[in-house]
Specification:
mainly alpha, 7 helices
């Protein structure tokens, strides 16, 4: 193995995380290479130092204070820029909705402005089509119509 490959494996060797083939190649290289052996000894010393260090409990509320402090900080340029664009996008959506609404109102008024006589005719036709005078209580092809014609009460409406 090359020294660059061994340097990538040193941390895994210290953590005893190498497979049998990798460990054999690592051990052979370390025996013959003084530079890699020195780097391995330095990493093992650091590992031993951290492993033997005393552990301390964080003060009560430490995590809460850290999170609160992070929230108070000014947002980074990227997040500030993104928040500005979101606001700008929502404002553009609102303006577009208002424009569409106004165009609908204006076009409806323009379309109906010159057609007041047509509009009155249409409304009269609608009213007359729903008038009860058009509906017959006994249509001619029905059983009731046959009964009325037999009895002779067709003229009595």
């Amino acid at each position: 193995m090359k020294c660059s490959q061994i340097k990538e494996l040193i941390s895994r060797y210290v953590d005893d995380d190498l497979g049998p083939d990798e460990q054999e190649a690592f051990t052979l290289h370390i025996r013959d290479c003084a530079g890699c052996t020195k780097e391995l000894e330095e990493i093992q010393a650091i590992h031993t130092l951290f492993a033997s260090a005393d552990r301390f409990e964080a003060p009560h509320g430490f995590a809460t204070r850290v999170v609160a402090h992070l929230e108070e900080r000014e947002p980074s340029r990227f997040w500030g820029f993104l928040a500005f664009h979101r606001t700008l996008l929502r404002a553009a959506e609102l303006v577009l909705a208002l424009v569409v609404f106004m165009v609908g109102i204006i076009s409806g008024n323009v379309l109906m402005a010159d057609r007041t006589s047509e509009k009155q005719t249409i409304l009269a036709n609608v009213h007359s089509s729903f008038s009860l005078d058009l509906f017959q209580a006994t249509p001619p092809g029905s059983v009731g119509g046959a009964y009325v014609s037999l009895v002779g009460a067709a003229d009595e409406r």
